[in-house]
Amino acid sequence: MSKVEFNKETGPREVFCGLTSIVWLHRRMPDAFFLVVGSRTCAHLIQSAAGVMIFAEPRFGTAILEEKDLAGLADAHEELDRVVNDLIARRPEIKTLFLVGSCPSEVIKLDLATVAEKLNKRFFGQVRFVNYSGSGIETTFTQGEDGALKALIPLMESSNEEKLLLVGTLANNVEDRFKKIFRNLGISNIESFPPRQSTELPKIGKNTKVLLTQPYLSDTVRDLKHRGCEIISAPFPLGIEGSTKWFLAAARAFNISELKVHEIISPLINRSKLALESHKEILKGKRLFLLPESQLEISLARFLHNECEMDLIEVGTPYLNKDLMKEEINLLPDNTKIVEGQHVEKQLDRVRESNPDLVVCGMGLANPLEAEGISTKWSIEMVFSPIHGIDQAADLAGLFSKPLRRNQILTSKTLVTH
Amino acid sequence: MELTLWTYEGPPHVGAMRIASSMKDIHYVLHAPQGDTYADLLFTMIERRGQRPPVTYTTFQARDLGGDTAELVKKNIKEAVDRFKPKTLLVGESCTAELIQDQPGALAKGMGFDMPIVNLELPAYSKKENWGASETFYQLTRTLLKEKVSSSEKISPLRWKELGRRPKVNILGPSLLGFRCRDDVIEIQRILSEQGIDTNVVAPLGASPEDIERLIDAEVNICLYQEIAEASCEWLKRNFGMEYTNTIPIGIKNTIEFINEVHNKLDLPLINKEELEHKSKLPWYSKSVDSNYLTGKRVFIFGDGTHAIAAAKIAKEELGFEVVGLGTYSREMARQVRATAKDLNVEALITNNYLEVEDAMKKAAPELVLGTQMERHSAKRLGIPCSVISTPMHVQDVPARYSPQMGWEGANVIFDDWVHPLMMGLEEHLIDMFKHDFEFVDGHQSHLGHTATQTKDFLNSDEKKEKNSKEGIIWTESGRAELTKVPFFVRGKVKTNTEKYAILRGIPEISDETLYDAKAYFS
């Protein structure tokens, strides 16, 4: 393991809670509905984080708790029943309904598991109910996806068929690219989790080889292991280096020669390196500060340093699973400062003191930092953009070079006044 | 429990944040879990603010719940006071913290600070954002001024005469995330100044705690947004005798009435009465022959109470529209909105459910929608032009240019913003009319997207598949052909009316003649 510096910090945080992941999960599985059992704050959070107005009736909503629901839990269960009945009557096309716990529902100990069990019996054969918590007292941002996937595992049937299982939400086009490359490598049985339809869950068992596409799935990994799945240890497929090592690790698990992998992906690598050049020119030698939010920070830091030659000031992460991140941490330069957790005020003091060229941060902090003259990139964009794989390396770099390039343009004087 | 897919208002603590962020030298310690920090982006992204809201979130976690969350609150309060050195501290809790009952306000008061501390109790499970803003502004005003209550004599609106200076007023209510507040304040101050009236304090927007203490230096309060300021104005009236205005100066008539009201309260003679009519271009633009086509345009209005009521008055009395729907999501102003709706002979729609609003809009078949950003989307789906008149805020509602809703310039802005989409509507009509001419290039795009101009779709899509309408009525060739000749913006209405007529008369097939029969019947 390279000699990175681990730090922990506690204090006031500035991060999204796990409910936010509904924004991409509901798009991944168009036959599912996400019903948050929470407060007006939860509803307002999701609609604000999604950043867009709703163009059609959305496939997520909030059962907003009211005074009378707090008075007695029995009544709350009855009320939730009523809301679910209404919802299913209104949206008969829903196949899976996620009951999503929130901070208030966790605090009043609303037992969503029991509610889901009862509803499963009543709507047997029509709608399946699963529950998980996206509450901010337990989860940060992307951890919501971890909870949702973990909740689906008990519904997955067993099979000893040999297969490669890609775990973690990917953009559809990226997923298609990956599958094509794996087929070219000679792996034919490839499935994704979460699937594109909530009812088409992959079967799993001792010959399922799990390759993670996202770094934030600790609980899902643990449960997949319990089901006998083999977890392929690899860095994450961000950038050329990460993706290459990711393909190689998968190939090893399927006894495919390294030579074959290089044969297939070399042309991709060459063309991607070329595309990366113009971004590298801008990013090279620039100093980067990553604030914690998505758990993608370590992989991004690795890519931006190793392939774009940026200097790392500090790499924040809301939560660090050293085991899952082992391969990534090994690729980081020595003396990288990793900070798990947050004291947002102290961290911003460090941002200002270190005078970075670029800060990766949440939307609440971006404009205030810009107003102080510090360029920023929103971390939420990483979970909405197709950034995985060799072919996307230049696009990923582009997310970081764009704010710097824009700065250059706006401060330059290229046209003479005639 | 209430199923909510989208909400017009946030929770009440977001209202408190609006007050805190609008002001100077104030800090708000909010006992809340980490996810609640999303609210910062409302200010930094939507309002494009270059400063973080002055809010410290305690961000307690599940593991803290077993231990001492009260200690965590105190630690955060101390750190926030040391770091930000506020002159007044607001302390409160969000929905989750309300359940664990740490009473952060009481804790803060026991910590021995000299600064005023406002303990905010905002019931998250029954109240919403505007109520939270109003309550926060009221509690803040009360805390900062309560010691002066007994010593102070009732403030006469005529005091300025004794003091031998120009009359002074406070402008109360404008806040961040309020619709065009930034520019309304400038416009109203300009108008008052022209009338010889000075502005003492604008609050909460841009005010400090010292400014709140100075409120009683003015003679009269201007209640600019009832949603935010009415409770404070009422308290100031009860305790200091300060009169406040009720007229919201949106539109020409209301602006003139507002000026009259202020003059009456101050007993200041109004010497430029005749001039006032000419301060805005709206009256002449509305009177000019070009605006004839605006007469009787069907308009559907939905928004916060203040803006919806004002829009109804302008639509009806200043532009000559017909108001075919009026509603609000502000339950606190339901009574006033109902009264206005009654005057207009429509039924008021009071709801927080945007789907209900969309349904009502569809039924009313308007030619113009005045609503929030959500109604803009609904209207777009229905192919109806729309102008945005109210919060909830969207980044587009914070334009770079000066763009008030109030006063003379506000009336100018409103004329343009409401009439231009309609003119575009007229263009749609022309596109529709001329599309059979050989000069017409196919694919001429309408600004409304594909919904408005596609006559074919209108007739052939679902309707045809289901053999026309659900009542089993059949549109014959001639009926369908006649319907395509009707201008698109009334076609929906004509279609519904004809079907209604057919059902009424038990006519199974609609021909061109049925269309004319129905037209005569309903006219």
Could you write a compact summary of the structure shown?
The complex is a heterodimer of chains A (418) and B (523). Chain A is of the alpha/beta class. Chain A is built from 17 helices and 14 strands.
Describe it:
The complex is a heterodimer of chains A (418) and B (523). Chain A is an alpha/beta fold and 418 residues long. Chain A has helices at 22-28, 40-50, 67-71, 73-90, 103-107, 112-122, 143-152, 172-185, 218-226, 239-253, 258-283, 297-306, 326-331, 344-354, 363-371, 380-384, 393-411; strands spanning 5-9, 32-38, 60-64, 96-101, 128-133, 163-167, 190-193, 208-212, 230-231, 287-290, 311-317, 337-341, 358-361, 376-378. Chain A is built from 17 helices and 14 strands. In chain A, strands 1-12-11-10-13-14 form a 6-stranded parallel β-sheet, sandwiched between helices. A 4-stranded parallel β-sheet of chain A has the order 3-2-4-5, with helices on both faces. In chain A, strands 7-6-8-9 form a 4-stranded parallel β-sheet, with helices on both faces. In chain A, helix 10 crosses helix 12 (297-306) and helix 11 runs parallel beside helix 17 (393-411). The longest helix of chain A has 26 residues, at 258-283. Chain B contains 24 helices and 16 strands. In chain B, the strands form 4 sheets. Chain B has a 5-stranded parallel β-sheet, sandwiched between helices. In chain B, helix 18 links the parallel strand 13 (368-371) and strand 14 (386-388). The chains are: A alpha/beta (418), B alpha/beta (523). At the A-B interface, helix 2, strand 3, helix 3, helix 4 and helix 5 of A face strand 1, helix 2, helix 4, helix 5 and helix 18 of B.
Characteristics of this structure?
heterodimer, A: 418 residues, alpha/beta, four-stranded parallel beta sheet, 17 helices, globular, B: 523 residues, five-stranded parallel beta sheet
